[in-house]
Amino acid sequence: MIDHYDWAGGREAMLRFGPTTGPVVVAALPLFEEANRTRAFTVTILRALAERGIAGALPDLPGQGESLVPTDAVQLGDLRDAFAAAARHVGSPAYALGIRSGALLDATALPAGRWHFVPSTGAELLRELERLRQAGGGSDYGGNRISSALLGELPTAGIAAEGRTVRLESDLKPADLKVSGSPLWRRAEPDNDPALAALLADDIAAWIRTCES
Fold first, then answer.
1. What angle do CA 48, 117, 192 make, to 5 degrees?
2. Cα(first)–Cα(last) distance of the chain, in Å?
3. Residue 89 contacts by C-beta under 8 Å, 6 or more apart in sequence?
4. Which of 160, 142, 186 has the alpha carbon at shortest distance from 38?
5. In sequence order, which residues have a C-beta less than 8 Å from that of residue 66 and are 6 or more positions away?
6. CB atoms within 10 A of CB 192
7. Of 72, 147, 170, 181, which sits with the fewest C-beta atoms within 10 Å of its C-beta?
């Protein structure tokens, strides 16, 4: 179902999945180019959660998807404010699902819980953006124009400490759970991994049941 939510900067679209009552998982895609590579995967996770009786929402944030806000007009505070507004819109209890740099965006929201998959800090995102810019040989970042204000915010942008963290087995950083799979955000073209999505949906569903008990 297509829904909308309002934030201080206007109105944005939102996809809704699953039941109309109970907990809702609100997903935040990675920022910029990684969003394109992981959107289908994220939708597959949310559809798998719906099959498990848990509602989901995927909001377009400013500068993402169908948003009319240019990417070079977006600051980190805008993204966080919009995500918080989307979480309020779906009702309570809302749980945040952040993939990669999407984990940066729930910092000012007040979710019932946070679940992060291979979260990346602002400094890590900035290094990836600089790599894309150098590889492209131009002034944009993988085809995205990004404001100097947002770039200046990234070195100190952190992730909320509380929550559940899931990483790939190849990742040496600590996590609550490690799973087998390959990093879709590294592939040249958008791709999907339904088996991994189902595994992550199982973990999210079990985690929410624990939080709700």
1. 50
2. 29
3. 3, 5, 6, 14
4. 186
5. 12, 13, 60
6. 16
7. 170
pLDDT in tens, the chain (213 residues): 999 999 999 999 999 999 999 999 999 999 998 999 999 999 999 999 999 999 999 999 999 989 999 999 999 999 999 999 999 999 989 999 999 999 999 998 988 999 999 999 999 999 999 988 888 777 788 888 999 999 999 999 999 878 999 999 999 999 999 999 999 999 888 899 999 999 999 999 999 999 998
Question: Hey, which CATH number is domain 2-121+161-212, 3.40.30.10, 3.40.50.1820, 3.30.460.80, 2.60.40.2470?
Answer: 3.40.50.1820
SS3 97: strand
Neighbour tally for 112: CB within 10 Å:
15
3 state SS of 48 = helix
Cis peptide before 93 (omega within 30 of 0): yes
What is the C-alpha to C-alpha distance for residues 56 and 44, in angstroms, rounded to an integer?
11
Q: State the residue for tokens 């498990």.
A: 52
Q: What is the residue extent of each domain of the chain?
A: 2-121+161-212
The two three-digit tokens of residue 160, written as one number: 């909320």
pTM for this prediction: 0.95
